[in-house]
Amino acid sequence: MRDPLSVLTEAFTSFVLGKVETTRPPVRTSTGQAQAVYLPTAAPGLGDSGVIIGREVYSGKGYVYDPFQLYGQQLPAPHWLVLGESGNGKSALEKTYVLRQLRFRDRQVVVLDAQGEDGVGEWNLIAQELGITPIRLDPMVANDSGIRLNPLDPAITTTGQLALLRTIIEVAMGHGLDERSGFALKVAHAHVNEHIADRQPILTDIVERLRHPEAESAEAMNVDIDDVRAWGLDVALVLDRLVDGDLRGMFDGPTTVGIDLDAPLIVFDLSHIDRNSIAMPILMAIVGVWLEHTWIRPDRKKRIFLVEEAWHIINSPFVAQLFQRLLKFGRRLGLSFVAVVHHLSDVVDGAAAKEAAAILKMASTRTVYAQKADEARNTGRVLGLPRWAVEIIPTLTPGIAVWDVNGNVQVVKHLITERERPLVYTDRAMTESSEPADPELEWETEQRALMRERQMDDSPRSTVA
Question: Which SS3 state, helix, strand or coil, does residue 49 take?
Fold first, then answer.
């Protein structure tokens, strides 16, 4: 039998020098317990009221978003900016979001559809599913059968009409109107509104009055009538393009009767217009102002105005100024503006940098899909994204995006139901795959591991702020 003193001495020495390991049983836990450990380092959710977008990649929680539910304490403005390269899921997100919003009876959506294939816009399938005929603006359609929106529609205030006419001209000319040209336009517009009462005034009336000004307008300024005619000549030539040029047939007559502004979904199909031409921002300006005065009403409905290829708006200082007013006006009347842009550099470094910054500031929700590293860094700098989010953006796979909702930043995987899939994926390349593995699942697994490493190395950096 060993000496008790020796046993005690050996035990004390082993304890001090660490020669004896403590044996522990294996750790067993449940999913709920694991989530409970993680949640203190995760950002709070956005609540459970609204439409389901998908699920958070790192926590696995469902991701629910609705600007109308969040507006106020959690969201200072209901407007939303969507960014990302083509083919990463922007269109699928927009379409499922609209379909899910329309399940609420008090929601109404207008879409400016600037993309399409086979002669129809991207939203054509959804419109058909809902029994809605898109409003197709096409300068090639015969004059008698085309859809028209009148910039001089009596539903638009005289102030709104004049502002819209100036914007059309300034966008087409690429610079602001000088005082003399502005005066000639103002005089012609006032004369047309004053003397035409038996029908809707149209652009042809403005062009005619610019070419043949009244003697009274010259006398009022104490100038020769030929001077007034010269001041308005360039303006008349620009407007003539919408009357008798390549853009005729869309805005050169009374507004087409029968456009249903009470439908749950209104689609303006602009897919027949060259997206890179000066026509696109002109069209968006006219449609935007026309909707402001005819569609947005002080009722209890919540309205969503979604614009594809929105850089045509943000990148033009003249169109952006019109839409800034619309966005400010929309807060009071329940309007959420959704702008879809491929590259932020398309707008922040352009001629309308000031106006672009103002519109971006109004967008309290920003969703960023995969971008190249340089573009991601630029986007992160402009939007003020945390460093960890900027590093992830170039690695994102289709369907996964970084969401920033007024500082609440999450990585979210967009989920699409089988019923929605044929409506939102219009490209076969997006729906057919021979790869047996799920790249999104592989990406999530890698990112979860990366996040765990960051939590161990630097816990403040891993917290989603």
Answer: coil
Residue 57 has pLDDT above 80, yes or no: yes
Distance CA 87, CA 370 (A): 9
How far is residue 335's CA from residue 329's CA, in Å, rounded to a whole number?
8
Run of H or E including 405: strand 400-405
Spatial distance between the Cα atoms of 81 and 404, rounded to a whole number of angstroms: 10
Measured from the Cβ of residue 152, the count of other Cβ atoms closer than 10 Å reads 24
CA distance 322 to 167: 8
The predicted model gives 381-396 an average pLDDT of: 94
CB 273 within 8 A of CB 279: yes
Q: What distance in Å separates the CA atoms of residue 203 and residue 360, rounded to the nearest whole number?
A: 33
* CA distance linking residue 225 with residue 227, whole number of Å: 5
Question: Does residue 391 register a pLDDT over 90?
Answer: yes
Predicted local distance difference test score (pLDDT) of residue 463: 33
3-class secondary-structure state, position 109: strand
Please name the residues in contact with 463: beta carbons below 8 A apart, sequence gap of 6 or more. Answer: 41, 42, 43
Strands 79-83 and 335-341: parallel
Q: What is residue 40's DSSP assignment?
A: G
Alpha-carbon separation of residue 224 from 117, 211, 289 (angstroms): 53, 14, 35
Of the candidates 326, 323, 245, 305, the one whose C-alpha atom is nearest the C-alpha of residue 278 is: 245
Tokens of 232: 């308005």
Helix (H) or strand (E) holding 93: helix 90-101
Which one, of 423, 377, 416, lies nearest residue 399 by Cα? 416
Please tell me the predicted confidence (pLDDT) of residue 8.
59
Predicted TM-score of the model (pTM): 0.77
**86-124 burial code (b ≥16 CB/10 A, e <16):** eebbbbbbbbbbbbbbbeeeebbbbbbbbbbeeebbbbb
76 burial level (CB within 10 Å; 0-12, 13-18, 19+): middle
